[in-house]
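hey team, just a heads up i'm posting the complex here instead of the shared drive bc the drive is being weird again. everything in one block, sequence lines first with there labels, then the predicted structure for the whole assembly after. its four chains so it's a bit long, scroll down
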Amino acid sequence: MPAAPLIERLEVRPWRITPQRRAVAESLVGEHVHLSADEVFTRARAGFPEISRATVYNTLNELVAMGEVLEVRPPSGPVRYDPNGADRHHHLVCTGCGALFDVRPDGVEALRLTDSQRHGFRVDDVEVVFRGRCATCP
Amino acid sequence: MPAAPLIERLEVRPWRITPQRRAVAESLVGEHVHLSADEVFTRARAGFPEISRATVYNTLNELVAMGEVLEVRPPSGPVRYDPNGADRHHHLVCTGCGALFDVRPDGVEALRLTDSQRHGFRVDDVEVVFRGRCATCP
DNA sequence: GTATATGCAAAGCATTTGCATTAAA
DNA sequence: TTTAATGCAAATGCTTTGCATATAC
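-- predicted structure starts here --
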């Protein structure tokens, strides 16, 4: 079962909902959405024209810190923001054009580190990135 | 069987070996080495004091393009360079301090994308990142 | 000899910061 | 009323670029 929409999850948190923050959250709705901060800024201005870049960055960083949004670092270019941070999933990236999809591969639960590989870490999370070429990149 | 040392692999390529490039390659020897461009710059100056930052960046980018060195993008901070690009392996990252280790987890071969998950891609590579807290980060 | 690598300094881009102002609870 | 969010503009950090010079092959 997919988690509730981002904006609804935010309403039940101790976090001030301002028009700016609402506009940022609404920019991020949907499946397979992986916008850069600048794309979020452009979209957010549609809902709140006087929003500033600084506020977009502030808000995105807060959403990431809350675990509601996931940062994805593509092979090149700026960080992208994935609104399904609450839903465990992975990524498929084109090394040609940077196209990015969410995937839920089989076999993830089989991934294991041995004690000696763990280097004393407490492991919280596994992220899997499949790299390749999309249908239109040679 | 581990691959031959980086500098030896480079000698058999159609790639001019200059003192600067040699100094960069020699900065990258060893297991569990994940230096930033600036750390490479510092080390490379030990071998060739008049090397410039631009040359370090140029050289690292070429090594990445050749597949000899792997770029690793930590949760924050600059790109790091991993000399074992020729040896398939994965990473364990501390979300506190950024500490980074190579790992070879069990179960990677079980990772599978279904046709519908493949989105028309030709998948070349899978990278697994374990995230957690190292022994000294709370 | 010729193509290619280098160094320098300047430009580029993404992101963060300081601080006075404004608005949410 | 009080605490926190916003906007602006400047600063930062990392990386790339343009171009004249030097160098490996």
